[in-house]
Design brief:
With 379 residues, the chain is of the alpha+beta class. It folds into 2 domains: 155 residues, no CATH class; 181 residues, Histidine kinase-like ATPase, C-terminal domain (Heat Shock Protein 90, 2-Layer Sandwich). The protein is built from 11 helices and 7 strands. The chain is rod-shaped.
Amino acid sequence: MSIRGQNYRLLSAYFLAWTLFGLFNFSRELTRRLYWHEPTHWQETLISWMVGIYITAALTPAVLWLGRRLPIEKPFRLQRTALHLLFSLGFSVVELALETFVFIQLGLLASVLKGSFQIGFPILLVSGFHENVITYWGVLGIQAGFRYYRGYRERELHAAELKMQLVRAQLSALKMQLQPHFLFNTLNAIMVLVRQQKGREAEAMLARLSDLLRCVLEDVESHQVTLSRELEYVRLYLSIEQVRFRDRLEVEISADPNLMDASVPHMGLQPIVENAVRHGLGRNSSAGKIRISAARVNGMLRIEVKDDGPGLPATDLSDGRGIGLMNTRARLNQLYGESAKLTLENGKNGGAVATMILPYQIAHEIPEAQPNAVNHANR
């Protein structure tokens, strides 16, 4: 909306508010006269009330200006209260003087004012002085209420922004811990190949590591990516491990094509897959298989990583040892709160099964502010 349109709406709302206030006072006066069986002269009464109200409305910007320049706040509360008391007296006198002049010009309340300012002004001063003082303080009170609400909203937004910055910093710190961990493990594997004088395999691993790092760095600022992008990281990582384990590592990835746009944590699957490789093949001299599946279940995205190794000790299942899994759990907690979880258990037919359950969200529909993280930070 344009500035002119906004100003028009504000002016219309301002006029409507004062009109309703004038009609309320008119109804009060009319009710009083009807109850005491006084002559109503309702048309003249209505016009006189509305003229008085619109004069007050015309003077109100000056009151608001004084309220902005001299807000009744510490440490000048007492002095400014005294100043506003004087201003309210002056406001009442000026408003009633203008009313008297306009009433005489329009011929209103002629039987009372007698067409004379000297006669009419004291009469209106006696009847309306205190009410105008109250109106002045009422305007100041409403302005102070809006100022307090605006300040409260600004503080609330500032607090939310600080919490969001904290969440982003925590997520970034977790990623900074996770990526070097993955990198060091891979470089260590390459070093083992070099020591074994397997130069060709080491070169192949370095080349694929370079591809993986290039891919990861393209999304280094993102905390969430699409499932298809995350599976691309996983395939590159597993291609590195296949060089290391040669023909011993078999990989099977099955995911519904309709889920490829689903949002998942950036580099969230890699430590889980790495854990499956380490515990599945690292403890087994025979060939092994890693199965990765993704499905939508009851509005949630369920991703499973299975291996057919010897399984995990009870201590590893209970606390999920390892910086990769601990960081993944922490990131899930930051991104989704209690609605996401990562479980680790031994399969019924052997091996280990890691299950990640996330809220199903389309990547392009996720707001930049990541409200789940803010809500979690508020708890």
